[in-house]
Specification:
Layout (H helix, E strand, L loop, with lengths): L4 H8 L5 H12 L1 H4 L4 H8 L3 H10 L5 H11 L21 H22 L2 H13 L3 E5 L2 H13 L6 E3 L3 H10 L5 E5 L6 H12 L4 E5 L12 E4 L12 H21 L1 H16 L4
Parallel strand pairs: 1-2, 1-3, 3-4, 4-5
Helix pairs in contact: 7-12, 8-12, 9-12, 10-11
């Protein structure tokens, strides 16, 4: 495979199938945008099937779609700090401290604004009802998304002991296998397309446990399993994996869920928050 994925596609273009050429034409015309798309969205936008995209990636010597997106991101011009340069707020090594901080602030503000624009009030209400009525709420995620699952558990732990966070993917699978329809899984996955995620959600779906998904892509593999989908803003390039801007949108949704949850039983939850605050206060100097 060529060092540049676009060169590789060009070299193989005449040997591609009709659908392969259709996909290649779309990628050439939308190189900057394609790296941010889920496989489902790319399939819809280009007019080919997801299977065609998978075969296309493997024909280029890649293991799958995620590796293709990373190669596509690397084919674009990037800054000297390794980020894509197609953003007006890209940060470079020449930026001084004030400029760097301003750009980061703008990215985070954009993430929050986009998340608010994507917020579906009906979906949020459904999610609040599920977590309010559940016996147990399992906060799950893998990799960087596991950090967000822990954030959710920590936030809700100030008001209830019914939220549970499990970090290890094997232990997550075990918990999901014992979950019931009276429980709920709050799952974080920016991409919504990882093998561990799919394995876990299949187990939960088989147990008829309600699933709330927080993701960036409305059309992703995880969406097929979710009962409620909440979307976070910010287009994160494969080269920006784990960016704070992407996490801020998810944290905004966590707090929306938290206050919606507290509003269901305000007196009881206010009392719990007072108790946990008093417990922590004793540990402060």
């Amino acid at each position: 495979m060529s060092n540049n994925i676009l060169n590789s596609i060009t070299e193989q273009y005449h040997s591609l199938t009709r659908s392969g050429k259709k996909l290649a034409d779309y990628i050439f015309a939308h190189t900057g945008d394609a790296q941010y798309l889920s496989i489902s969205t790319l399939a819809e936008n280009s007019g080919v099937s997801e299977a065609t995209i998978t075969r296309f990636c493997r024909g280029l010597g890649l293991s799958g779609y995620n590796e293709f997106k990373l190669a596509l991101a690397k084919s674009e011009r990037i800054t000297d700090l390794g980020d894509p340069s197609n953003s007006p707020e890209n940060i470079t090594a020449e930026d001084d401290c004030t400029t760097t901080c301003r750009k980061i602030h703008n990215l985070i503000a954009r993430s929050l604004d986009e998340t608010l624009e994507l917020l579906d009030e009906t979906a949020l209400s459904q999610a609040v009802s599920l977590i309010s009525e559940a016996n147990r709420v399992y906060c799950f995620g893998q990799g960087g998304s596991n950090v967000m699952a822990m954030e959710a558990w920590a936030r809700f732990s100030t008001a209830t002991n019914s939220f549970i966070h499990i970090e290890d993917s094997h232990m997550q699978a075990m918990a999901a296998s014992l979950a019931t329809p009276e429980d709920t899984i709050l799952f974080f996955s920016y991409s919504g397309s990882t093998k561990d995620m799919e394995d876990l959600l299949k187990i939960a779906k088989g147990k008829r446990t309600p699933i709330i998904l927080i993701t960036h892509f409305s059309k992703c593999r995880a969406a097929d399993f979710a009962d409620v989908i909440l979307l976070c803003g910010y287009n994160e390039s494969p080269l920006q994996s784990g960016s704070i801007a992407a996490k801020m949108g998810q944290m905004f949704l966590i707090d929306c869920l938290f206050y919606g949850y507290c509003q269901k039983k305000p007196e009881a939850r206010a009392a719990n928050r007072s108790l946990t605050a008093e417990a922590i206060a004793k540990k402060l100097l």
